[in-house]
Specification:
This protein is an alpha+beta fold and 506 residues long. It has three domains: 332 residues, Alkaline Phosphatase, subunit A (3-Layer(aba) Sandwich); 44 residues, no CATH class; 87 residues, 2-Layer Sandwich (Arylsulfatase, C-terminal domain). Helix content is 25%, strand content 19%. The protein is built from ten helices and 22 strands. The strands form six sheets. Strands 6-5-4-3-12-1-13-15-2-16 form a ten-stranded mixed beta sheet, with helices on both faces. Strands 17-18-19-22 form a four-stranded antiparallel beta sheet, with helices on one face. It has a two-stranded antiparallel ribbon with strand order 7-11. α5 runs parallel beside α6. The longest helix has 24 residues. The protein binds 2-acetamido-2-deoxy-6-O-sulfo-beta-D-galactopyranose and calcium ion. Calcium ion binds next to loops.
Length: 506
């Protein structure tokens, strides 16, 4: 009798526990250089993104959602670790460099793994590979994604505009012929493939700045490359390759809890839409690859629905930094823009300390759990680690993340009060609706990409409440507010600021 009672009690306790230990799947969809105004549900541009809109309108669309940084590698570092990138002097835009996440560091996928999840990454990585110098692409490449928490990886190492133009699966270059080894360099050693400067007659896309070295598929890249002929990717098929690989991976894990980091290459340069999408936006290749990315997101959504796992899957959509038009190639991004506004009503863009550098599309979706909502709470990608950890009942916490699980997944609670943003080693500070940008004695405009960087000889102060476009500098009229913010900003940066100041500004 007693034994039976104990058994019943045990079963009851177990059932309580399993109710608490929810294990929704998570698909984190991350775009590259997608702007705040590029998603039509934000109602700021003229491009139509129906699949992203469906997810945005069925979930929470955040109007104050931030990447940590205005460029890629630092934002991805913060997304993965929950640590501000300016604390890590390696967290800079990577061009063939080594892994910037320490193998001992806590990461988002490691946290999921500790809670019994399968973890995978498909798409752009750009967090570096290997350690202690040049990477050898002809043997197992390590450390990489598999050493910082991913059970499975199918990646492009850096970006589409950099060599080597090959995919890497779990540390091995896909389709590599050992008799045709890969060699690359980002210096002046001009070898192997013809280059943009020497062989302009081979180009199908022209370079505007940078991007004048190895020509692959008619597109000149950053860096020289030789070998690896059979391993080279096809640019126009990249979107299909990544969505197919993502689905193949999900086929193997869909019956278990999983975390998939689906990291799209669009709309970063070079913009190479598949012929199915050419001309679909009326805005040239930049618009067309956003249409292509939107289709990919629709494919992912349909996959989850068809496999009966949509209701138990949280979908996140965001971008690693703000938009840029001409980022190094002549591709009509400026000429065919029309009335579209990639940055929406925000000032600046990629590389900028103004809002458009870091404020990005930011959507959370959980069918049946999250109520459709537009939220103005301040949220950041730095907070995903702590928030998912809290949702799953883990004790793991990051250095700089805030637990925003109720804001992200329950339509309740408050967002952040303060946030330090970063743009090519410079930092600025948001506190509630105020933004303070410290002085930087650097050019105000990057003329090559035509983006205002937020540099000025004096402090800048803006109140986003009534000046979202940062047109009215209030530093002279609100000296007390400015002082308070400087004090708090320097307190947060602490000793790391002194380290950061020593670094050469990019
Ligand atoms: C810059 C490249 C730019 C882009 C960027 C990285 C030049 C002149 N510019 O150095 O085209 O590749 O790096 O972009 O080479 S990010 O979104 O991955 O940070
Ligand atoms: Ca980017």
């Amino acid at each position: 009798m007693k034994a039976k009672f104990l058994l019943l009690l045990f079963t009851f306790l177990l059932s309580c526990n399993s109710e608490k230990n929810i294990q929704p799947n998570v698909v984190l969809i991350y775009l590259d250089d997608l702007g705040y105004g590029d998603v039509s549900s934000y109602e700021l541009g003229t491009l139509e993104t129906p699949n992203m809109d469906k997810i945005a309108n069925g979930g929470i669309r955040f109007t104050n959602g931030y990447a940590s940084s205005a460029t890629c590698s630092p934002s991805r570092y913060a997304l993965m670790t929950g640590t501000y990138p300016w604390r890590n002097k390696k967290a800079k835009i990577i061009t063939g460099g080594n892994l910037i996440i320490d193998e001992n560091e806590m990461t988002l996928p490691k946290m999921f793994k500790s809670m019994g999840y399968e973890t995978g990454v498909v798409g752009k990585w750009h967090l570096g590979l290997g350690k202690d110098g040049p990477v050898n692409y002809n043997s197992l490449i390590s450390p990489g994604p598999n050493e910082v928490g991913f059970d499975h990886s199918y990646i492009m190492a850096d970006t589409q505009d950099r060599v080597p133009t090959v995919y890497i699966e779990n540390g091995n270059v896909v389709n590599l012929d050992q008799n045709d080894p890969i060699e690359i360099n980002f210096g002046n050693d001009d070898y192997g493939l013809p280059s943009g400067t020497k062989n302009p007659e081979l180009l199908t896309m022209k370079w505007h700045h940078g991007h004048n070295k190895a020509i692959v598929n008619g597109v000149p890249r950053i860096g020289y490359m030789k070998g690896g002929e059979k391993a080279k990717w096809s640019d126009i098929d990249m979107a299909d390759e990544f969505i197919n690989k993502a689905k193949e991976y999900l086929d193997t894990v869909k019956d278990k809890p999983f975390f998939l980091f689906y990291s799209l290459q669009q709309p970063h340069v070079p913009r190479t839409p598949h012929p199915r999408f050419v001309g679909t936006s009326g805005m040239g290749p930049r618009g067309d690859v956003i249409k292509e990315a939107d289709w990919c997101i629709g494919e992912m959504y349909n996959y989850l629905e068809e496999n009966g796992i949509l209701e138990n899957t949280i979908i996140i959509i965001s971008s690693d930094n703000g938009p840029v038009l001409n980022d190094g190639y002549y591709d009509d991004a400026v000429e065919k823009l029309g009335d579209h506004t990639p940055a929406g009503n925000l000032r600046g863009g990629k590389y900028s300390l103004y809002e458009a550098g870091t404020r990005v599309p930011f959507i959370t979706y959980w069918k049946g759990k999250i109520k459709p909502q537009v939220s103005d709470e301040v949220v950041t990608q730095i907070d995903f680690l702590n928030s998912f950890s809290s949702l799953l009942g883990s004790n793991i916490k990051s250095n700089d993340g805030v637990d925003l699980s109720s804001v992200f997944f329950e339509n309740t609670g408050k967002g952040r009060d303060e946030l330090v943003i970063e743009a090519t080693s410079r930092t600025a500070f948001r506190q509630n609706n105020w933004v303070m940008i410290p002085p930087y004695n650097l050019p105000a405009l990057n003329p090559r990409v035509n983006i205002e960087l937020g540099n000025s000889k004096d402090y800048l102060l803006f109140n986003l409440d009534n000046d979202i476009s940062q047109q009215n500098d209030l530093s002279k009229t609100n000296p007390d507010k400015l002082n308070d913010m400087i004090i708090r900003y320097e307190e947060i940066l602490g000793k790391d600021k002194k380290e950061a100041e020593k670094l050469e500004l990019e």
